[in-house]
Amino acid sequence: MDPVRGVDLAFWYILGISVLLLIGITVVMIYFVIRYRRSVHPVPEDIRDNLNLEVVWTVLPTLIALTMFWVGWKSYIGLREVPEDAIEINVAGQMFSWIFMYPNDKETEGELVVPLGKAVKLNIESWDVLHSFYIPSYRIKVDAVRGMTTYAWFNADKEGEYDILCTEYCGVDHAYMLAKLKIVPEDDYLAWLETEE
Ligand SMILES: [Cu+2]
């Protein structure tokens, strides 16, 4: 499944179930408060053991939690399985900017340009402390760790400009560690790739 759709599906599924439970529990709670108020039921009754009820309230939430896990797991797999035809760009985080390195050794700072309609794999590293590479529009957020290469990928399916942020507090200018993702037609990308900065 497309990663953006997968992540959104997991989000809305879990949020939907949470809202249903909130409404259900609140309605039952209000009903019980009124129905069993002290003026009507002054003496509480001690009720013990109801096997059927206990089985239901154990099995049902377990099944619901497992479906949440399944939806989340499917979306996670979508984020980790990179299409084979993806183009690869290396990314380095440093205090306080993102550096992008292209296959032809072109290097940019604060600007990631990719061709429209391609899957893009980003190999992410850090040159100093912990950073975290974040593109909200494509639902990817992966730590940049010194001495270790992590990765993320996205489907550049819509032309435009998108925000890139660092989302791991990395020092005084962390908040300014911003970059732009630009998705442009492939011809523009190839021409851009050959220009000198
Ligand atoms: Cu940072």
Short description:
The chain has 197 residues and is α+β, with helices and mostly antiparallel strands. The chain is built from 3 helices and 10 strands.
Keywords:
197 residues, alpha+beta, 5-stranded mixed sheet, 3 helices, 37% helix, binds copper (II) ion
Query: How much strand?
Result: 25-35%
**How many strands, what sense, and barrel or not for the largest sheet?**
5 strands, mixed
Low-confidence stretches: none
Mean pLDDT: 94
Secondary structure elements and pairings:
Blueprint: H1 3-35, H2 51-80, E1 87-94, E2 97-101, E3 107-109, E4 111-115, E5 119-126, E6 131-135, E7 140-144, E8 150-155, E9 160-166, E10 179-184, H3 186-194
Bound molecules: copper (II) ion.
Copper (II) ion is lined by residues 93, 131, 166, 168, 170, 174, 177.
Can you walk me through this structure?
With about 200 residues, this protein is α+β, with helices and mostly antiparallel strands. Helices cover about 35% and strands about 30% of the residues. The protein contains three helices and ten strands. It has helices spanning about 5-35, 50-80, 185-195; strands spanning about 85-95, 95-100, 105-110, 110-115, 120-125, 130-135, 140-145, 150-155, 160-165, 180-185. Strands 3-2-1-5-8 form a five-stranded mixed beta sheet, with no helix packed on it. A five-stranded mixed beta sheet has the order 4-10-9-6-7, covered by helices on one side. α1 packs antiparallel against α2 (about 50-80). The protein is elongated. The two termini are about 35 Å apart. The structure holds copper (II) ion. Copper (II) ion (CU) binds next to loops.
